[in-house]
Amino acid sequence: MDSADLLDSTLTLGDVEGAAARIAGAVVRTPTHYSRTLSQITGAEIWLKFENHQFTAAYKERGALNALLQMDPLQAARGVITASAGNHAQGLSYHGSRLGVPVTIVMPRTTPTVKIMQTEQVGGTVVLEGETFDEAKAHAHLLETELGLTFVHPFDHPHIAAGQGTVALEMLADAPDIDCIVTPIGGGGLISGMGTVAKAQSPAIEVIGVQAELYPSMYARLKGQVMPAGGDTLAEGIAVKEPGVFTSRIIADVVDDILLVGESELERAVALLLQIEKTVVEGAGAAGLAAVLAHRERFAGRTLGLVLCGGNIDTRLLTNVLLRDLARSGRIARLRITLQDRPGALYKVMREFDAHNVNILEIYHQRIFTTLPAKGLITDIECEARDRSQIERLVTALEQRGYLVGQVELN
Question: Is the pLDDT of residue 104 over 60?
């Protein structure tokens, strides 16, 4: 479908209901649960839609399946191709393999390894090209022509958006009191479908989109601004430089506002969801909660529907996020202590850690690469405590004994 066709295309509640009937039984009808603890933390009534419980751990398979089921049989037999940072790739590969449709996926080289492996495991052929989604998409279009395949867009198509909108049908059926939906935006397929459903069922429902600050593409387009998009974001699933033609038009009609969130807010939301809800989400999947945490006054007292849209996060990255969250909360700290280079100096410091019941994780000695005199040294000690106040008491005790103590802070 070219740009002119996309500009003429429509999306209605009937389209979404048709998609729901079409994909019924082939995707998981994921639960929508009330979160008592997150509600207490945020001051809003929080309902969570667990799309990370899909077989491929993301909502994307809804739109992918809806598109596959409406393809011309001859096109399907030749095969399809797409560009994706991972979740659309897995959804298309899984359902393509199930339906006997060959699937080729072009992924950016920056795609987390877990998404590449999972895509291949469900039957997709992966080609790595480019550093961003947009570069991968350009290469996919080249292969589309060369190999005679059909391109299945990850977001900018009515069939895709209709499939994604089925998330809202289920959410609002399970939690009819929701008066505001907070949804991540990459290219805009999910919020186009969900917003269409919400506004058709109840125009009073507010629809709020969320983008990473590093990739404010839809935010900039709708507000008529020129803003840079790029960089390493935890929310790589919504790191899209160019929003869709079709989705931009739908979003202009059904979305009330778009908010931006920073990387630290995304990290905190991922950690909170694991700690409180015992559920693993990727950065994009935590964007809705990140926005609520960052804009508490905007949502106070509202009944919110948040979509945990994906759970495909690299385990090493998840470990880093959790450790950084512990550091920000004061549970883990790195203290930089200046010592005299003489026997027993480190032992005396260790006694203070023991007296304050602070656990030592790592010790780093610097004798050479310092600005201190030759008989001085810097010791970095990573440590773990119950809370920030326990660390502060330890620092006070060390300073009272004459030690120069600094603390390495995270942004």
Answer: yes
Burial 156-179 (b: 16+ CB within 10 A, else e): bbbbbbbbbbbbbbbbbebbeebe
pLDDT at 2 over 60: no
Query: Model confidence over 344-387: pLDDT tens digits?
Result: 888 899 999 999 999 999 998 776 555 555 556 788 999 999 99
Alpha carbons 40 and 51: distance in angstroms, whole number: 23
Single-letter amino acid code for the residue at 264? S
Query: Taking 80 as the threshold, does the pLDDT of residue 108 lie above it?
Result: yes
Total-model pTM: 0.89
Helix ranges restricted to H, 69-132: 73-78, 87-99, 113-121
User: 10 Å Cβ neighbour count for 341?
Assistant: 14
Alpha-carbon separation of residue 211 from 17, 215, 270 (angstroms): 27, 7, 15
CB neighbour list of residue 347: distance below 8 Å, 6 or more residues apart: none
For β-strands 150-151 and 180-184, DSSP reports them as unpaired
CB-based contacts of 106: which residues, under 8 Å, 6+ apart? 81, 82, 83, 84, 127, 128, 129, 130, 136, 137, 139, 140, 143
Distance in angstroms (rounded) separating the CA atoms of residues 317 and 351: 34
The encoded tokens of residue 259 equal 């908010």
